[in-house]
Write a structure and sequence with these properties.
15 helices, disordered N terminus, mainly alpha, disordered C terminus
Length: 409
């Protein structure tokens, strides 16, 4: 989501190195300055990780589109159709696994969390970057629900429940991302990467089986959200980390592979949906294929790291879309209902207003926050934190690498 943020311009192309072509970073190598490469930041203007930030942005835009469609259907402005149900059951659920995958790739690529000290320092930062926006926009979401007469509304017990037990969608991504980073150190060898991926896959298979088997489904479904969400999404984080360490990206950069994976996912999702096979196991398979498809597609399109105008603009607002669109759509719904307008009688107006609330309003609001002092810290706290390299670097080490010394990204 999410994994997700102000980054300065990238270094000249002569100094850029691909993580897939360079050796793994070692403890003796000075870490890269993180102000250009933060997991929760906007995309660099030109970088070999531009494809990841662009993929995050597209996943978030699809999530916003899903919120718009859900709102239109809930108000009767959009009839429920087979196509809408397919989007809701197959395409929309894929986006959070995509965000966890991107988070894992960037985490392994630009972090080195292998000791208790670096873990503590990293988690302090993530508590600000992930949990602060989660808490703020959970409160705002409940306020918006109260205005629209929806549940959960703002009250002490429901706020506590939304913050701890049952996060408001899609804000649970931030909550789960924090927990996943808390239990997952960066890997330093192929053996570590394979072991982590295998462990996460086994956990995913176990929770899918528990939620599918009738004798255990009810008990598993009653398990805490944090436990189920971590168990279901750990494998996507581990997959992104493995791709970063194992330098597997060049194997995925192919238009033919991207087209083939896309065709496979579409065909599999349509067959699964039409046959009524939607469930934990089918979602796991579809999500795995879908992540490979999106990663192959974006890694191929942006293989040189150059941003076009659209993505250069839109990635600067990824977190704003993710955090603000839900409450704003809910407020728009409350306003239309308050005016006495029903979705069934004014579907076009509802569609225009909901699209504006989901896509236009976050842009305008984030633009205003950035020009109102430090108020945009509620969306991008990382902009106001010390650079990560300064946090994780040995205090006695030089702030910049010595000349003529290769810095491995």
């Amino acid at each position: 989501m999410m994994t997700s943020l102000n980054i300065s311009s990238s270094s000249p192309s002569s100094r850029r190195e691909s993580a897939d072509d360079a050796p793994s970073r070692t403890n003796d190598t000075p870490p890269v300055e993180p102000s250009r490469h933060d997991m929760h930041a906007s995309a660099p203007d030109a970088s070999d990780t531009a494809w990841v930030y662009n993929l995050q942005a597209v996943a978030v835009l699809i999530i916003v589109l899903g919120q718009v469609l859900d709102g239109l259907q809930a108000t009767g402005a959009l009839p429920i159709s087979e196509a809408a149900l397919w989007l809701h059951d197959c395409l929309m659920p894929l986006q959070l696994p995509v965000l966890f995958f991107c988070l894992g790739y960037l985490y392994q690529r630009f972090r080195q969390v292998r000791t208790g000290r670096t873990w503590l320092l990293s988690m302090k930062r993530e508590a600000c970057v992930l949990l602060a926006p989660f808490a703020v926009f959970t409160i705002l979401s409940l306020i918006a629900n109260s205005a629209a007469g929806l549940q959960p509304a703002l009250s002490g017990p429901q706020l506590l429940d939304a913050l701890v037990l049952h996060p408001v969608a899609p804000l649970g991504y931030l909550y789960t991302a924090f927990l996943l980073l808390a239990i997952t150190p960066t890997v330093k060898s192929r053996r570590n990467a394979y072991g982590l991926l295998l462990a996460a896959a086994l956990v995913k298979a176990a929770v899918a089986a528990l939620l599918t088997v009738p004798d255990t489904a009810a008990l598993a479904a009653s398990a805490p959200y944090a436990l189920i969400s971590v168990a279901e999404n750990w494998v996507w984080l581990a997959g992104g980390m493995a791709l970063a360490l194992l330098r597997g990206l060049p194997l995925m950069r192919s238009r033919e592979k991207a087209w083939a994976l896309g065709a496979l996912w579409i065909a599999a999702s349509v067959i699964t949906f039409m046959a009524g096979w939607i469930g934990e196991v089918s979602h796991a398979i579809l999500d795995a294929i879908g992540i490979l498809w999106f990663a192959s597609l974006f890694a191929t399109i942006f293989r040189r790291g150059h941003q076009d105008g659209f993505f250069n603009f839109i990635t600067a607002y990824t977190m704003a879309f993710f955090l603000m669109s839900g409450p704003l759509i809910t407020v728009a719904r409350a306003l239309l209902v308050g005016l006495g307008l029903a979705g069934g009688t004014a579907p076009v107006l509802y569609a225009i207003v909901f699209l504006g609330a989901g896509f236009g309003a976050p842009l305008a609001l984030q633009y205003a926050l950035e020009r109102a002092g430090r108020l945009d810290a509620i969306v991008y706290p990382g902009r106001f934190l010390p650079p990560l390299a300064d946090i994780l670097r040995n205090p006695t080490a030089p702030r910049r690498p010595p000349r003529n010394r290769l810095t491995l990204y």
